[in-house]
From TrEMBL:
Protein name: histidine kinase
Top EC class for this record: transferase
Alphabetized GO MF terms: phosphorelay sensor kinase activity
Record bears the keyword Phosphoprotein: yes
InterPro entries attached to this UniProt entry: CBS_dom, CBS_dom_sf, HATPase_C_sf, HATPase_dom, His_kinase_dom, HisK_dim/P_dom, HisK_dim/P_sf, Sig_transdc_His_kin-like_C
Keywords, sorted A to Z: CBS domain, Phosphoprotein
Reaction equation(s) it catalyzes: ATP + protein L-histidine = ADP + protein N-phospho-L-histidine
Top-level taxon of the source organism: Bacteria
EC number assigned by the record: 2.7.13.3
Originating species: Fluviicoccus keumensis
Coiled coil: none
Annotated TM spans: none
Pfam families: CBS, HATPase_c
Length: 430
């Protein structure tokens, strides 16, 4: 059943030949107390006009109005431009039609028809009230949908961040495992050396005890000396201590590398600093390169052309995230081996960083969509299509811009520009 039919009130209709007095008398009946107008229909029940209380008032307010016009037929006074809609018409369409054609001030109801014939009258205010309620429900539905969309977007962005974090942690773990491995090996070698030294020391302690014993014989002393000689056989102490010194140097170097990586990770995330700080873009480049080293080192030669830059106020951890994404994308675009050229420079208003690779490039038709959420040129399973979208949003929130140029088969260049002055508003990406 159409929703519009609920507004149909089966009020009586008049024939064009009915008199004005008959209409006035009918309007005075209690069942029509709230009716603003009534339909005028022909013999087939097809609406041909409308007559309203307002029209009757105009007639009877005139001097001798009832005497002059009361006996005349309704057809002489009815409004032939009727406000009628089919009962099966959608509610929104009917409301739009009635709103566009009703007169102000509101003095008429509207006619509902079925197959062109009179069905009943409907109140304009009731219909508009129902539409207002429907709009309120639609707004509530839209708000719920928007909230769900925002929540889904936040979850997707968080998933992208966690995926990037997983890749970053895997790379850092690999970088830490290399020096940690030979530090562990060196410690094992030192442990073996200490064990041998302990045996030799124990032999010398036994010799000293034997020499001091009043009951010791020359045979006992000779046996102790022979045992010590056996333990020292084949040992070159000068070379042994030189090797030990080298082991310590290698161990300290490995520990320094681990310390450098941990410090770099802390600088990359900026966990010990305010959300925004005065930072050199060159420092962000170095931090991101350190974290991306495991991804880059096997096939990418990094070339740096970093100029002296003034510090800018920014969320360094977010800028680091953008640079890491650009470096990682460059590594993935280089199939075998290639170059990554990183340049920084400045002018009176901006600081710039350019990231240019010799990878496979991006097709022209893809460039205009490269920053769209979920759009990716990578194979299935290698990207979510959110990395560059998040990067674009981060740079935009910093008051900057990110541009891209690419040629298939030759490579891609991204240029990030950030203002030298603090942006008006800066908020974190969810």
């Amino acid at each position: 059943m159409s929703a519009l039919r609920a507004f149909a009130v089966p009020l009586p209709a008049f024939h064009p030949d009915d008199t004005i007095n008959a209409v006035a008398e009918r309007f005075l009946q209690p069942d029509l107390a709230k009716a603003l107008s009534l339909a005028v229909v022909d013999a087939e029940g097809v609406p041909v006009g409308m007559i309203s209380r307002h029209q009757l008032n105009d007639i009877f307010m005139k001097k001798f109005g009832r005497d002059l016009f009361g006996a005349r037929p309704v057809r002489d006074f009815m409004r032939t431009e009727i406000l009628a809609v089919d009962a099966d018409r959608p509610l929104a369409e009917a409301a739009a039609f009635i709103t566009a054609h009703m007169q102000f001030p509101l003095s008429e109801d509207f006619i509902l028809t079925e197959n062109g014939r009179y069905l009943g009258m409907g109140a304009v205010l009731h219909l508009l009230g129902a539409m207002e309620q429907q709009m309120s429900r639609n707004v509530a539905d839209l708000n719920r949908a928007y909230s769900q969309l925002a929540s889904s977007q936040a979850q997707l962005v968080q998933s992208e961040k966690m995926a990037a974090l997983g890749q970053m942690v895997a790379g850092v773990a690999h970088e830490i495992n290399t020096p940690l491995g030979y530090v562990n090996n060196n410690i094992e070698m030192v442990r073996e050396f200490v064990a041998q030294m302990q045996l030799i020391l124990q032999g010398h302690e036994l010799l000293a005890s034997t020499l001091l014993s009043p009951t010791a014989t020359d045979v006992d002393i000779a046996e102790c000396l022979a045992s010590i000689d056996d333990m020292k056989a084949g040992l070159d102490f000068s070379q042994w201590f030189a090797d030990l010194d080298q082991l310590f140097n290698d161990t300290f170097y490995g520990v320094e590398q681990i310390s450098e990586l941990v410090t770099g990770l802390k600088d990359f995330s900026r966990l010990d600093q305010a959300p925004t700080d005065n930072v050199s873009l060159n420092e962000c480049v170095e931090s991101a390169l350190l974290i991306a080293r495991n991804t880059l080192k096997y096939k990418v030669e990094v070339l740096k052309r970093l100029e002296d830059l003034p510090k800018i106020r920014c969320a360094a951890s977010q800028i680091n995230q953008v640079l890491l994404n650009l470096f990682t994308n460059a590594a993935q675009a280089i199939r075998d081996t290639g170059y990554l050229l990183i340049k920084t420079w400045t002018d009176d208003r901006w600081v710039y960083v350019s990231v240019q690779d010799t990878g496979c490039g991006i097709p022209r038709e893809s460039l205009r969509r490269i920053f769209d959420p979920f759009y990716t040129t990578k194979p299935v399973g290698e990207g979510t299509g959110l990395g560059l979208s998040i990067s674009f949003k981060i740079i935009q929130q910093h008051g900057g811009a990110i541009r891209v140029a690419s040629e298939v088969g030759k490579g891609t260049r991204f240029v990030v520009s950030l203002p030298r002055t603090e942006p008006v508003s800066l908020s974190a990406v969810a």
